[in-house]
Amino acid sequence: MLRPKVLIVNDHPASLLALESLLTQTAEENGFDMVTAQSGEAALRHVLHQPFAVILLDINMPGMDGFETAEIIHSHPRSASVPIIFVTAHHDDEMDRLKGYQKGAVDYLFIPVIPQILKNKVLVFVELAKKNLQLQYQTKQLEELNYDLQIKQMQDLKKINAALEAEIIERRQAEERAHSLATRDALTGLLNRRSLVEHLKEAIARAKRQNKSLAVLFLDMDNFKTINDTLGHDVGDDLLIQMAKRISDAVRGSDIVGRLGGDEFVVLMEGLLSYQDAAVVAKKIVQTNMPPCTIGVHSLKTSVSIGISLFPQDGDTVQTLMKHADLAMYHAKQQRRGSVQFFHEELNKRLLERIQLEQEIQHALERNEFELYYQPKVDILSSQVIGLEALLRWHHPRLELISGTDFISAAADSGQLVTIGEWVINAACEQARRWRDNESSLSKLPIAINIAIPQIFAGLPGTLRRTLHKYGILPSSIQLEITESLLIHDLEMVTSVLRQISESGISIAIDDFGTGYSSLSVLKALPIDILKIDQSFIRDLGKTTSDTAIVAAIINMARALAVRVVAEGVETKEQLAILKSLKCDEVQGFYIGQPLPADTLAQQLLQTTSA
User: Fold this and answer.
1) Residue 318: enclosing H or E segment and its boundaries?
2) Where 4-aspartylphosphate occurs, residue numbers (predicted)?
């Protein structure tokens, strides 16, 4: 029998995570599932596809707020009776509360939420939903029993025609298999490259005759090569099959979907009224592919980057439209993986610049053009520097000094990410040894090193062990910072690697926390020592009570996990004061200290100490 579902809607990731965490144990004990959404639009999509026992709905959301969302939900016959509990940080006046009840709310909850009240209110509707599901289940069983009786009566008649029908079906299937082998991709069942090109030629000819537009969407899966290389081709093939189905489910009925090969797909859209039609479908494809794919014991998170070219403005031949859509997809991947970009002429210039940058990266290590800058982390109570973060800089011969964020994606595409990552580990350990030999006070400070996804799957524990031995420094001399989004990749592999590293004595921090949607159960299972609150939450700290509440919730969560908390991106005195009042452990940011070369930082800290 189906389990009841509870929908939680909130545009703040940390608030969403906090509400979900409060209900996790209750859901396990009482047999219901939770679904989350970060906007009213996302909530509506969930409501259209599945029933809910109750909806916890944030009122103040950008775009479609809670009132509008509730009104639309209750306007649909399938969801007209779904109970809605508004969750808000503002104690509105009676007129606003009356408005909420008029929009269909059954109750209000005010942040900070009292856990037991939240659980009790949710359980009332969950139990009611269970009874309804039980009744539906019993009704279905009765219908199936009646259906079975009818089927038995028809079996004798069907046996008479079975032999003849089997022969007809067999012949038809043979014909279909022959046609499919010529036109379909053997793995996914989509159109193959040859058939797709033929369809596109015909579509262009029709569009010219009828003076109409069409769009070519070029899709590429992000991180597929890493998954395929580390987990094997069988897992990669299963992932491609699931992606093909998701893409097919997301497009319009008239659209054509094909697989070019590898992890590249194409969607052909005819009969466009405007270019926005293509954007709508592309964004739907991106959203459909956001949830992880479950393949065996693996939960794999990947996204789809999409480039779009339009006929006739971007080309009038198959080759031109495909090339320009591919360029747009490449640009989308560089801008932000899992995004959508239209083709424009500037992309040709940017592509040449990108290719040049990738070529220059290959020579940067040989020419010793990389350098590590170090940014201090300060204990919030003692105001003492207790750690450093190593940040990569490139003394580029053309572009002068550029930060790692400006070229790291190009390094990934050129296959240099692991090599550069190993250089960073080596340089940080070498610097730690140099400070120790010079009897510098900095030798007592652990150096935090950022780790990228490919490094996890490239023998990271062995690399760390060899480098520490090479320079004769202790594991406590360094820390690893893993972005929270890394956890949504092969969690089993990541956990295993991090556990090996932690057992060696190296501490581990989760960076950019609050943006990756990792669950509390995942965090509990990982051998982590530090949570670094993403600077997007610190930036607006103190401007609204909800921002302060989010940061407070993360700090309290860290306390429950027995790990230290670092707030990154601290830029003002006011932010520092609020973090101190919330009992944050450490702070980092321009207000505390800017990233500096090793010698400059050592000299600055020496002057500060002696002053």
Assistant:
1) helix 318-335
2) 58
Question: Is residue 490's pLDDT more than 80?
Answer: no
Task: Give residue-wise pLDDT tens across range 268-317.
Answer: 999 888 888 888 999 999 999 888 888 888 888 888 999 999 998 888 99
Query: CA nearest 263: which of 295, 226, 215?
Result: 226
Using CA atoms, how far apart are residues 583 and 568, in angstroms rounded to an integer? 15
DSSP state of 458: T
**Domain 364-609 carries which CATH code?**
3.20.20.450
CA distance 214 to 154: 49
What separation in angstroms does the CA of 380 have from each of 354, 478, 558, 611? Answer: 42, 21, 16, 20
Any idea which fold 193-343 has? Alpha-Beta Plaits (3.30.70)
Q: Which of 506, 455, 504 is nearest to 483 (CA)?
A: 455
Q: Which two tokens mark 379? A: 């204990």
What are the angstrom distances between the C-alpha of 316 and each of 202, 268, 281, 310?
12, 14, 22, 9
Provide the residue type at 527 as one letter: P
Tally of CB atoms within 10 A around 150: 8
pTM: 0.52
Largest Cα separation within the chain, whole Å, is 102
Helix (H) or strand (E) holding 609: helix 598-610
Tokens 């069907």 belong to: 158
Q: Assess whether pLDDT exceeds 80 at residue 388.
A: yes
Using an 8 Å Cβ cutoff, are 66 and 39 in contact? no
Contact 213, 312 (CB under 8 A): yes
Does the domain at residues 1-182 carry the CATH identifier 3.40.50.300? no
Q: Which amino acid is at 565?
A: V
Domain borders along the chain are 1-182, 193-343, 364-609
Cα–Cα dist 377/592, whole Å:
8
CB 368 within 8 A of CB 428: no
As a whole number of angstroms, the distance between CA 453 and CA 417 comes to: 9
pLDDT number for residue 473: 93
